[in-house]
Write a structure and sequence with these properties.
Length: 157
């Protein structure tokens, strides 16, 4: 699963990495945990590993999180492993909307209380309306899930 910041917001992360990338990790984690615990989707406690990449293969700024997620989770009562449906983990549209709904309000709150640093050509980001317009434009946001080889459920010894 990959959670990506839009290109227009990437300079904020580059110049304010501690704040923005922490928020990216928190929003992605909470998105996956919230959806996985919902019985409508999986109904299980989820574990995962997230790795931050700040550059794309072309060496352009492209902040995104790669998340390694098992194909299921531990039931809420800790009694068993619950596997996801074959070929399906969590719905991409729901993931994208929930991630956006977690990241954007938090980033706007941070923008109000934090003195984000901006240098050189990024001074236009200081204009709050530009930040708000960019950060709320839903066409800029992506959150994608690409299934990879799925391991079998863990065995009980």
């Amino acid at each position: 699963m990959v959670f990506t910041l839009p290109d227009d917001l990437a300079p904020i992360g580059l110049q304010n990495p501690r704040v923005v990338y922490k928020l990216l990790f928190q929003a992605a984690a909470q998105t996956m945990l919230d959806l996985a615990t919902d019985p409508k989707y999986l109904g299980a406690d989820l574990g995962f590993l997230a790795v931050l990449h700040t550059w794309g293969q072309n060496l352009h700024l492209h902040p995104h999180l790669h998340c390694v997620v098992p194909g299921g989770g531990i039931a809420a009562d800790s009694s068993r492993w619950l596997s996801c449906r074959p070929g399906f983990f969590l719905p991409v549209r729901v993931l994208s909307r929930l991630f956006r709904g977690k990241f954007l309000p938090s980033s706007l709150r941070l923008f109000k209380v934090t003195n984000f640093g901006f240098m050189d050509s990024f001074t236009n980001w200081l204009r709050r309306n530009r930040f708000k317009t960019c950060s709320t434009n839903s066409t800029l946001w992506s959150g994608s899930f690409t299934p990879r080889h799925r391991s079998a459920a863990p065995s009980r010894s």
